Amino acid sequence: MVRNVQRLRGRAASSPGEAVFLNLSGDADMFVRTGGKRRDFLRVAASSALLAPLSAPAGKALGAEFRSKNERPGLALIGAGGQGKGDAMGASHFGDFVAVCDVDKNHAEAAKEHHRIGKGKAESYGDYRKVLDRKDVDAVIVGTPDHWHSKITIDAMKAGKDVYCEKPLTLTIDEGKKLCKVAKETGRVLQVGTQQRSDHNKVFLLAVALVRSGRIGKIKKVTAAIGDGPTGGPFAKESVPPELNWDMWLGQAPKVDYIKQRCHSEFRWWYEYSGGKLTDWGAHHVDIGTWALGMENTGPRTIEVVKGELPVEFKNGYPTVADRFNTTTHFLVRATFANGIPLEIRDDTENGVTFVGEGGRIFVTRDRIDLDGGAVGALYKDPVSDSLLRELRKGKPLDGHMENFIKCCGDRGTPVSDVWTHHRALTTCHLANIAIRLGGRKLTWDAEKEQIVGDAEADAMQTRPQRAGYEVTA
Ligand SMILES: NC(=O)c1ccc[n+]([C@@H]2O[C@H](COP(=O)([O-])OP(=O)(O)OC[C@H]3O[C@@H](n4cnc5c(N)ncnc54)[C@H](O)[C@@H]3O)[C@@H](O)[C@H]2O)c1
């Protein structure tokens, strides 16, 4: 019986048969440690265990649709901050940036001049609509703050562009419904930037596959631990920097004076622009939890707030002060699915996703997976099935997240982080926020009708007032 799970790479188990250690990084081979001595390592070649079933090309060749036009897709970056630039650097392997856009001129210029993005040749813009008018833009990467994701993505899909949009895809549940509708109507490819579904060392995919194939038995509980949210403020008003179009940055959100900490990077700690930790990290770990449970096309029945602390006073679901971070700081929210399985989202344990089953336990975080119980013993004797892995990857090889997107643009396949399942996972996060913002009351969710039942005030919070001219419409 496995009693002790080794967590650190290279550490020996205390006695044979006790501990298990997986390393899926580096050359992508898999090592399963079943005992205390090095020779006890059982090397499970990638070909026999996890990776090979998906390493063969699936569908048409990379970017096939594009190649017939102009060899490589024409790309545009909209929102050239920290993450947008990182995404664009990844995409530059597969296509050419002809346009970069940011409401902060300095960010747009830096991306334009970047040796891997604009290479000094791309045109820079301050208004994304002009980018969408360009016929030579096949696909756009959206790296704006959350409150702009839905509008830009919908406008891009309607303009015939494929979209890689950062997570969390939406500011509200209602935006998610609209995005699903437009994606279906237009048939455009939409990849969400939840790259844990394509993580380089495959630990999340492995965890999901093990849970789905019953290796730890019937699941009793899932925990998505995502860290706490910061407090901050009071912050001072400042004059708007000359390079920034503050009105356009605010977009659908209420018009307010410029406070530096509302803007770049720190926007995620304000409900006006984001959902705080619950959507920022919930988008990743709640997604993995619901994917593993096979609940990614439905939603929870109930949402209970065990703990939900806000850094400022809220009234009717909205913050009462304007100069401090206002998203939740400490929380434990329990979302229970129709089959009775609770998924807890909490701030106070190590960042990662834990699956507790009747026959074992799996903890997975970036770069590490701990397996306890039947999960691993069975893994090398009986590898995860090819068909399950193919299903999880939607028939695509184990590529990086951006490559998966570009391949789907080429063969019109469904990307691994599709809009429909992301919308569902993020709905759980949005519901958790709504419940906390309303003082911690229990919510009942009808996942089929996508309605909060018996609580009109909470249900109305599926959407928000939007400034004229910036409405998100399907
Ligand atoms: N996948 C991940 O692991 C991951 C990691 C970090 C950030 N993100 C996501 O990436 C997004 C951006 O985060 P960040 O940290 O890079 O923020 P950031 O503030 O550094 O960058 C956002 C950029 O978008 C620009 N922008 C705002 N409104 C715009 C508009 N209407 N048109 C064009 N540009 C606009 C801003 O001026 C800024 O340059 C967020 O949604 C965040 O959640 C994802």
Folded structure, characterized:
This protein is of the alpha/beta class. The protein has a domain at 199-382 and 419-460: Dihydrodipicolinate Reductase, domain 2. It contains 16 helices and 20 strands. The strands form 4 sheets. It has a 9-stranded mixed beta sheet with strand order 18-17-16-10-15-14-11-19-20. Helix 11 packs across helix 15 (419-437). 49% of the residues are buried. The model is unreliable at 1-69 (pLDDT under 50). Bound molecules: nicotinamide-adenine-dinucleotide. Residues 78-84, 101-104, 107, 128, 143-146, 148, 166-167, 193, 195, 248-249, 251, 264-265, 280 line the site of nicotinamide-adenine-dinucleotide.
Largest sheet entry: 9 strands, mixed
CATH topology of one domain: Dihydrodipicolinate Reductase, domain 2
Second CATH tier, the architecture of one domain: 2-Layer Sandwich
The CATH superfamily title of one domain = Dihydrodipicolinate Reductase, domain 2
Helix content: 25-40%
The order of strands across the largest sheet is: 18-17-16-10-15-14-11-19-20
Associated small molecules:
nicotinamide-adenine-dinucleotide
Give unreliable regions as ranges.
1-69
Using DSSP, what is the number of strands? 20
Q: Beta-sheet strand percentage?
A: 15-25%
**What average pLDDT do the residues reach?**
86
- Structural class by helix and strand composition: alpha/beta
CATH class of one domain: Alpha Beta
Q: Treating each run of at least 4 consecutive H or I residues as one helix, how many helices? A: 16
Distance between the termini: 54 Å
GO molecular function, one term: nucleotide binding
InterPro entries: Gfo/Idh/MocA-like_OxRdtase_N (IPR000683), Gfo/Idh/MocA_oxidrdct_glycsds (IPR050463), Gfo/Idh/MocA_OxRdtase_bact_C (IPR043906), NAD(P)-bd_dom_sf (IPR036291)
Pfam family, one: GFO_IDH_MocA
